[in-house]
Design goal:
Layout: H1 5-16, E1 23-24, H2 25-34, H3 62-77, E2 84-89, H4 95-107, H5 109-114, E3 115-120, H6 124-133, E4 139-141, E5 152-159, E6 168-173, E7 176-184, E8 193-198, H7 204-212, E9 224-228, H8 230-242, E10 243-252, E11 254-255, H9 257-260, E12 271-274, E13 277-279, E14 290-292, E15 295-296, H10 297-306, E16 310-316, H11 317-323, H12 326-332, H13 340-354, E17 363-369, H14 373-377
Parallel strand pairs: 2-3, 2-5, 3-4, 5-10, 11-15
Antiparallel strand pairs: 1-7, 6-7, 6-9, 7-8, 10-17, 12-13, 12-14, 16-17
Length: 391
């Protein structure tokens, strides 16, 4: 166990000064990941094949290039607005932005001229990496809260962002929803924090299950445990307010509510990632590991409806990317002059994007706002029937 002792002390201090000497799990997770000095995402985090985790982007430029195909079509459907704002929320090391911008510049020069690329990034360390990597492009950085309401024509998009929002944890006892809180350990054990359960800290937790149509009084065993991402609802509300005309594209791992809160999935989806090892103990390696949970896509759809967002489509990433041309890319590999080792490496990378048990199983949700009937009637390429590849 390699916790950051300074961060543990800061969390312990916050607990000691909180009412009833405890904080919600969401507050604990927020400090562990986003503490302004010692949080996991604040300092030099380790992403990529050698780091704690890797994403779609680390498999090559294809993922970003296929997204660029979708963004170019969105620009066409919206009748080529100038500017078309492409707002990437949580841009990691900037790799995806580079892949998208290079491909648009190369393949869609008119779209490139109309493009206003905006990055919303919470981590100062990652923002610095992005700025170094994107020097050749015109990109601006801002806070989501600084974007004026109804000011954006274009697309807000995120790739593996919402899974890292702090979540509330809960348990069910005798049909009742109880919230998980974190308090300081009174013993001299190595883990400085312990959990207690009590009534919910906010009525929003009860309202959440009304929103998604799940009744915890019906068929849930005692000790059933899971999580609720209230931060995702607030985030989507903010995004919807900023958007005047266009799309919201969310790519992440998750499920519809009926699957997420299936009574048989009795321990939730919270996962920790430390040097490519996955486990479910958020109280070790504090500040040194990523903590994530799956997304409830039903909640995003329902909150979207409340905020004036219409659901365009939801499908698995594999089908979304195939519809955008990934199948043709795989088929074309047999005609390339690449050395065999590079060919096999590239083939493996493209197949990883399709793997139903991995990245291919991610969900892709697209919502829209302010579109005319004619614009809504034009299907997005990513939601058409995909071209199958030669396996």
């Amino acid at each position: 166990m390699h916790s950051n002792s300074t961060l543990c002390n800061a969390i312990a201090s916050q607990i000691a000064t909180s009412p009833r000497n405890r904080i919600t799990f969401a507050e604990y997770m927020d400090l562990a990941l986003y503490h302004p000095i010692h949080g996991y995402y604040t300092k030099a985090i380790s992403i990529g094949k050698q780091g704690d985790f890797f994403t779609n982007v680390h498999l090559g430029a294809d993922f970003g290039e296929l997204l660029a195909v979708q963004f170019a079509q969105m620009w066409e459907i919206l009748q080529q607005p100038v500017p078309f704002s492409l707002v990437e929320m949580g841009a990691g090391q900037g790799l995806l932005a580079v892949d998208i911008l290079k491909y648009i510049q190369q393949e869609y020069p008119d779209f490139f001229k109309a493009l206003d690329y905006v990055i919303v990034e919470k981590s100062p360390t990652l923002k610095q990496q992005q700025q170094q990597r994107l020097q050749e492009f015109s990109v601006r950085w801002c806070e989501l809260e600084d974007i004026p309401n109804n000011s954006i024509s274009g697309c807000f998009f995120s790739n593996e962002l919402v899974d890292a929002f702090p979540v509330h944890q809960f348990v069910v006892e005798e049909g009742q929803l109880l919230e998980v809180y974190v308090t300081n350990s009174s013993s001299t054990q190595t883990i400085p924090f312990v959990e207690v359960v009590d009534t919910p800290s906010t009525q929003q937790l009860v309202e959440y299950f009304e929103l998604i149509g799940v009744n915890l009084k019906n068929g849930y065993p005692d000790g059933y445990r899971s999580e609720v991402n209230l931060a995702a609802l607030d985030w989507l509300s903010t995004v919807a307010n900023c958007l005047q005309h266009g799309y919201v594209l969310t790519i992440d791992y998750g499920y519809p509510a009926s699957r997420y809160y299936n009574p048989r999935r009795s321990q939730g989806t919270l996962q920790c990632y430390y040097q490519h090892h996955r486990h479910n103990n958020p109280y070790i390696n504090v500040g040194q590991q990523d903590i994530t949970s799956h997304i409830d896509f039903t909640a995003l759809e329902r909150r979207g409806e409340q905020c004036g967002l219409d659901k365009i489509g939801f499908r698995e990433q594999a089908l979304f990317l195939m519809a955008l041309g990934l199948g043709e890319r795989i088929a074309n590999l047999s005609h390339t002059k690449l050395p065999v080792s590079q060919l096999l490496q590239r083939r493996d990378a493209l197949h990883q994007l399709l793997d139903p048990l991995g990245l291919g199983g991610f969900g892709v949700l697209v919502q829209s706002k302010g579109l005319t009937e004619a614009q809504t009637a034009q299907p997005l390429k990513g939601f058409t029937v995909p071209v199958t590849s030669e396996q």
